[in-house]
């Protein structure tokens, strides 16, 4: 995974498996644990992704 945002408490890792219609997203915050979900290739889901980050 590639770090996309760094804070004073650690690094947020984000991995996105890009496909034609549905993308798989994995986020690992500095506090631990993982969040995983699927998003459709549409503006609404990209806006939701931006809010989650």
Question: Would you mind describing this structure in some detail?
Answer:
By secondary structure, the protein is of the alpha+beta class. It has one helix spanning about 45-50; strands at about 1-5, 10-15, 20-30, 35-40. A four-stranded antiparallel sheet has the order 1-2-3-4, covered by helices on one side. A hairpin with a 6-residue loop joins strand 3 (about 20-30) and strand 4. The longest helix has 10 residues, at about 45-50.
A few lines on this structure:
The chain has 53 residues and is an alpha+beta fold. The chain has one helix at 43-52; strands at residues 2-7, 10-17, 22-28, 35-40.
- Domain count, please report it: 1
From N to C, what is the helix and strand string? EEEEH
Distance between the termini: 15 Å
* Fraction of residues in H or I helices: 10-25%
Round the Cα radius of gyration to an integer and report it.
Answer: 12 Å
**What structural class results from the helix and strand content?**
alpha+beta
Largest sheet: 4 strands, antiparallel
Specify the oligomeric state.
Answer: single chain
Mean pLDDT: 86
Tell me what portion of residues adopts beta-strand conformation.
Answer: over 45%
Number of strands: 4
